[in-house]
From TrEMBL:
<protein>
    <recommendedName>
        <fullName>GPI inositol-deacylase</fullName>
        <ecNumber>3.1.-.-</ecNumber>
    </recommendedName>
</protein>
<comment type="similarity">
    <text>Belongs to the GPI inositol-deacylase family.</text>
</comment>
<dbReference type="GO" id="GO:0006505">
    <property type="term" value="P:GPI anchor metabolic process"/>
</dbReference>
<comment type="function">
    <text>Involved in inositol deacylation of GPI-anchored proteins which plays important roles in the quality control and ER-associated degradation of GPI-anchored proteins.</text>
</comment>
<keyword id="KW-0378">Hydrolase</keyword>
<dbReference type="InterPro" id="IPR056824">
    <property type="entry name" value="PGAP1_TMD"/>
</dbReference>
<keyword id="KW-0813">Transport</keyword>
<dbReference type="Pfam" id="PF07819">
    <property type="entry name" value="PGAP1"/>
</dbReference>
<dbReference type="GO" id="GO:0015031">
    <property type="term" value="P:protein transport"/>
</dbReference>
<dbReference type="GO" id="GO:0006888">
    <property type="term" value="P:endoplasmic reticulum to Golgi vesicle-mediated transport"/>
</dbReference>
<feature type="compositionally biased region" description="Basic and acidic residues">
    <location>
        <begin position="10"/>
        <end position="21"/>
    </location>
</feature>
<keyword id="KW-0256">Endoplasmic reticulum</keyword>
<feature type="transmembrane region" description="Helical">
    <location>
        <begin position="819"/>
        <end position="850"/>
    </location>
</feature>
<dbReference type="InterPro" id="IPR039529">
    <property type="entry name" value="PGAP1/BST1"/>
</dbReference>
<feature type="compositionally biased region" description="Low complexity">
    <location>
        <begin position="1057"/>
        <end position="1066"/>
    </location>
</feature>
<dbReference type="GO" id="GO:0005789">
    <property type="term" value="C:endoplasmic reticulum membrane"/>
</dbReference>
<dbReference type="Pfam" id="PF25141">
    <property type="entry name" value="PGAP1_2nd"/>
</dbReference>
Length: 1081
């Protein structure tokens, strides 16, 4: 049973909160403090430009309580922007704020700052809605979730536009069922969620409690201004930016999710398909769990078994301008069927028509307008869910977010009733069947208005009606220049015209005989295309009125007999119209060429002089998102005068991405089609059309049009970098592992531990070419198996017939196209070059620090007269090292993540390499060179593992900067760092790894080979595992160091050194003049 509260910001005593019925047990006093803090931290943002400044939390949101404590953690934290007010009163009860902040990491107190514009507008709004208290809510709740390192202030753009639109438009609509949008936002102290899975889970759990509290405001006396006849809201609309969209989907999988409290989610540039980086195991596992939950839910046969049946998910991508994350990852094709959501690119959205970068997608003016209007279109306060049913929601989102040219776009004409009665002369001219209607100038006819009738072909399958004009199409009752009607013959029955039709258009004049047609207006199905003239430079320029385009399949026109194009221009104008029925065989061109031939020779087409108004060119082979193209369209000659310049639309059917090019001669083509590492679609389509090019060209010009398509090499390289950036953190581990394998193999045989450079040269002549060749063949096999798996899934064959699992997309290149096998050796060569550069940079650092170290320690070296004792190498004693190691492990297990310890170990290993380099350089003894090469190679390995550990470390450091008392609740496993610590500490004493026997050497080679193979095959998808594999290698090396069976071999090796004395470290030689140890030249 819910409990209501009369929360009053001016009171210190509150009744029980009604956030949920199953709260954890809480004492009354503590519960009152929680409710008070919630009241302090919440402001409703619906119709104002008031910038809310909140005092930052004393403890940032990183440590969450166990599940049974989830409700206690949800003490406060709604951020806000204020509503319908220009002032803010102080909140009593400040004495308990410190305790509240300690309990809730997002607790805050409001401090409102009002700008001049905000004050002016707020006064105007108060005049409209009278004076309301700041805590009052009266509209539809919308929760904005910021993304990775995002701010709650990003909601201001959407909230401001929502207020503008409501007060200027929506509130004047009669019986519309609309109310203002109450925007809420949460201040997470700009948490970094992309790198840390636990932070993502913490936010999702907390937001579920926040939604419970938001909904409680709408039925708490004194907190709302809503019509008492309206139902209390039971759900909240979610708008999530970047990782906030992933958090939104995660909320529905959490234990504390309140059923049906979320039914509409709009995400902006959110990477749904896979994590942006795979350096944290928690984020990878969270993605897998959440995505599996959504796939399983929508794979249910019956709606009653699907907990997400009521949810609609819209994913909006910024396209190529988003260089922070690849827009391929925004696809929800693998998660949600088309009945419940879709992915759309901003270049396809009407009135947006442009790419948007990752941050600007929250405040881009034309984009926020489209989002706000779509939200107002799907809300309905007469329902408890606050939105229209799912099917109507999807219809509204398609209307505002799609061009209307997509296959799933719905036409309103078949659902309409005939409301216009068109009366024509009995002998009115009708365009001959198969002819094209061309009006070069509206208003040219003497009869005004003048109707041109185009007969609908009877039972003409495969035909399509298209109409293009530079004028706007008039809706019913408008007095514009052009109206398009779809009509059927209406039998003459007296009295019916006034009772059945709202519009009567009589063009019969004084004619005694007349033809009456019952017509439907087509203005609601008009598609806006960018104006394309010889003066056009960019699509949808503000100084050019867009073209109006109609397109209907014959199924939509089955009940109609005529298309009436009514010229209503009062005088001659520059308006023109082209309308026709064309066959699919003439208007669609299928290019059956392989990708290899297209890339080598290009594509050349010639559109004939007698062609349809629109030509659709489909190139199924061009489906990869890894390539960019250039297109050239030749100029056509037109003796009668060109109506419009060629207009190009490039689009992909699998995801809704369209881009327009006007007055096109040369244009670049970039698409987000089949991208690497993307999971398979929830429901495979057949066939996959790949890239499609829709070209509108003037059909009245009696000339052909040349089209040439070629590869854009530089653009393709940029796309390869965007899709395969992570590969440069995984493939180097393959190279380093093979080099170490070569070094240990040679050392166990000859006793010489070659340098990293020598080992790399040996690998270039042996193992690396073989490894890259094997990986190239493996990429072909995986791509073939994945492609065959898709074909079988489309054919309906059972999943157990596939050669591999669907996780093939996670392996190696992650592509199902065998053409891209060459990327394996290409990336291999690039990575080898990077490894060479990093190796020489490390050598340069060691040389520099060794020179500085020699200057500092030069006096001691002269005193020792060149002796190399253990005390001269080891910096601390054994006892100090043991104590330091124990302290570090205790800190890792309680306070710091093991990634911090790893960075410290990298610095210690660098110092060890520097001292080893100085020792080897000054002594010239082979054993010292062996140790230096060994220490240097381990440092190179640790250096390549370092980027995998840095993101989580950045999260911890940022949390520490916000408040140093905040505990870090993940990555405290000491086993993940202990082998590194033991190995680095061992090397810091100057102990050289002993030579191993045949069996141990074989196991070492197998281990290093396995690490390299895993890095190449799984490293991109599971990069965090590489740290643990290197950790296992360190444990193995430590075991070799301290294996008693190697001591006898070590003593024997030392006895064979020509009589030289071996130190306790096993490598430090006495450099006396009597020594017979061989030195390097």
């Amino acid at each position: 049973m819910r409990r209501r509260s009369s929360a009053d910001p001016s009171s210190e005593h509150h009744d029980a909160d009604d956030s949920t019925a199953d709260h954890s047990p809480t004492t009354p006093a503590e519960h009152d403090e929680k409710l008070a803090s919630r009241t302090e931290g919440l402001q409703v943002t619906a119709e104002a430009w008031v910038e809310s400044k909140r005092w930052k939390s004393a403890i940032p949101p990183h440590t969450r309580p166990p599940p049974h404590m989830a409700h206690e953690k949800a003490d406060v934290p709604m951020a806000a922007l204020g509503k319908d007010m220009i002032s803010h009163t102080a909140v009593p009860g400040h004495s308990s704020k410190w305790r509240q902040r300690l309990r809730s990491p997002w607790t805050c107190s409001p401090c409102t700052l009002v700008t001049t514009l905000a004050a002016f507008l707020a006064m105007f709004l108060m005049a409209q809605s009278f004076l309301t208290r700041q805590q009052d809510v009266k509209g539809v709740p919308v929760l904005f979730i910021p993304g990775n390192a995002g701010s709650y202030k990003q909601v201001r753009s959407l909230a401001a536009e929502a207020a503008y639109h409501y007060h200027n438009n929506v509130q004047h609509e009669v019986d519309s069922g609309k109310r203002p949008l109450d925007f809420f936002s949460v201040d997470f102290n700009e948490d970094i969620t992309a790198f840390h899975g636990q932070t993502l889970l913490d936010q999702a759990e907390y937001l579920n409690d926040a939604i419970t509290y938001i909904l409680s405001l709408y039925h708490t006396p004194g907190k709302f201004l809503r019509d008492s006849t309206l139902p209390d809201p039971t759900s909240v609309i979610i708008v999530g930016h970047s990782m906030g969209g992933v958090v939104a989907r995660t909320m529905l999988t959490m234990p504390n999710y309140q059923a049906n409290s979320i039914n509409t989610i709009i995400t902006l540039a959110a990477p749904h398909a896979r994590p942006p980086v795979s350096f944290d195991g928690d984020i990878v596992r969270t993605y897998k769990r959440v995505n599996d939950y959504w796939r399983h839910a929508y794979s249910q046969k019956w709606a009653i078994d699907n907990p997400l049946w009521h949810v609609t998910l819209i994913s909006i991508a910024g396209g190529s301008l988003d260089t922070m994350i690849s827009s391929d990852y925004t696809s929800i094709q693998s998660l949600v069927p088309e009945t419940h959501g879709f992915t759309v690119f901003s270049t396809s959205m009407p009135n947006v028509w442009t790419g948007i970068d990752h941050l600007a997608i929250t405040w881009c003016d034309q984009h926020r307008k489209a989002v706000v209007r779509a939200l107002y279109d799907v809300i309905d306060v007469a329902r408890a869910t606050q939105t229209v049913p799912r099917a109507e929601r999807m219809r509204g989102f398609k209307k505002w977010f799609l061009t209307g040219l997509e296959d799933i776009a719905e036409k309103s004409l078949p659902q309409k009733e005939a409301k216009t009665l068109l009366t024509l002369e009995e002998n009115s001219a009708i365009i001959s069947e198969g002819e094209r209607l061309v009006l070069r100038s509206l208003g040219k006819s003497k009869q005004r208005p003048n109707a041109h009738l185009i007969p609908v072909p009877p039972q003409a399958q495969g035909k399509r009606f298209t109409l293009l004009t530079n004028e706007q199409l008039d809706p019913p009752g408008s007095h514009g220049m052009l109206e398009v009607l779809f009509c059927t013959v209406f039998p003459s029955q007296p009295g019916q015209s006034t009772t059945l039709f709202s519009m009567n258009m009589d063009l019969s004049g004084d004619s005694s005989g007349a033809t009456r047609l019952a017509c439907k207006n087509a203005a609601s199905d008009v598609i806006a295309l960018p104006a394309s003239t010889r003066r056009s430079t960019h699509p949808f320029q503000t100084n050019e009125r867009p073209f109006s385009y109609l397109q209907y399949e014959m199924d939509h026109l089955a009940e109609h007999q005529f298309v009436a194009v009514v010229d209503k221009a009062g005088e001659r104008s520059t308006g023109w119209v082209v309308a026709e029925f064309s066959s699919a065989s003439d208007s669609q061109i299928q290019v059956d060429m392989g990708l290899q031939r297209l890339l080598t020779t290009g594509l050349s087409l010639r559109l004939p002089s007698h062609r349809p108004l629109m030509t659709d060119i489909k190139v199924p082979a061009l489906h990869s998102a890894l390539l960019a193209y250039n297109i050239h369209i030749g100029k056509q000659s037109c003796d009668t005068g060109e109506l419009f310049a060629p207009l190009l639309r490039q689009y992909v059917t699998d995801i809704h991405e369209s881009r327009f090019s006007v007055n096109v001669r040369d244009a670049g083509i970039s698409l987000h089609g089949v991208a690497p590492y993307m999971p398979p679609a929830l429901h495979q389509k057949q066939p996959q059309n790949g890239l499609s090019l829709q070209i509108w060209s003037d059909p009245t010009c009696d000339s052909s049009v040349e089209i040439n398509l070629s590869v854009d090499v530089l653009g393709s390289l940029g796309k390869l970098w965007m899709r395969y950036r992570i590969i440069f953190s995984a493939f180097p581990i393959l190279v380093v592992a093979l080099v170490l394998r070569q070094q240990f193999k040679t050392y166990d045989k000859t006793g010489v531990f070659m340098s990293f450079t020598q080992g790399l040269n040996e690998c270039l002549r042996s193992s690396l070419p073989l490894a890259l060749s094997a990986l190239a063949f493996l990429s072909v096999a995986l791509a073939t198996a994945q492609h065959q798996s898709k074909k079988w899934s489309i054919g309906g064959k059972p999943a157990n017939m596939t050669l591999f699992h669907d996780t093939n997309n996670e392996l190696l290149l992650g592509s199902d196209d065998t053409f891209f096998w060459f990327l394996v050796p290409l990336f291999g060569l690039m990575v080898i070059g990077v490894c060479v550069v990093i190796n020489y940079v490390a050598l340069l650092l060691e040389l520099l620090f060794a020179s500085l170290y020699s200057v500092v320690r030069s006096a001691r070296l002269r005193k020792d007269e060149g002796k190399r004792s253990p005390s001269a190498f080891a910096v601390t004693s054994n006892r100090q090292r043991v104590v330091t190691t124990c302290i570090l492990l205790s800190l890792v297990s309680t306070v710091i993540p093991y990634h911090f310890a790893y960075v410290v170990l990298c610095l210690v290993q660098l110092a060890t390499s520097v001292r080893a380099f100085r020792l080897a350089k000054e002594s010239g003894i082979d054993s010292n060179y062996n140790f230096y090469n060994y220490a240097h190679s381990i440092f190179i390995l640790m250096l390549w593992i370092l980027p995998i550990n840095l993101p989580v470390l950045v999260v911890w450091i940022r949390n520490l900067a916000v408040h140093w008392l905040t505990p870090f609740s993940s990555h405290h496993n000491i086993l993940s760092i202990m082998p590194f610590i033991l190995l680095v500490e061992t090397l810091s004493t100057g102990r050289m790894v002993p030579r191993a026997d045949f069996r141990v050497s074989i196991l070492t080679n197998i281990l290093l080979f396995s690490i390299g193979a895993y890095a190449a095959v799984y490293g991109v998808t599971y990069a965090y595992v590489l740290h643990h594999l290197a950790n296992i290698l360190c444990a193995w090396l430590v075991a070799i160091h301290f294996d008693p069976s190697t001591w006898s071999a070590r003593r024997a090796s030392c006895n064979c050194s020509g009589g030289s004395k071996s130190s306790k470290s096993g490598i430090l030689e006495n450099n006396s003049p009597d020594s017979k140890t061989k030195k390097r030249p």
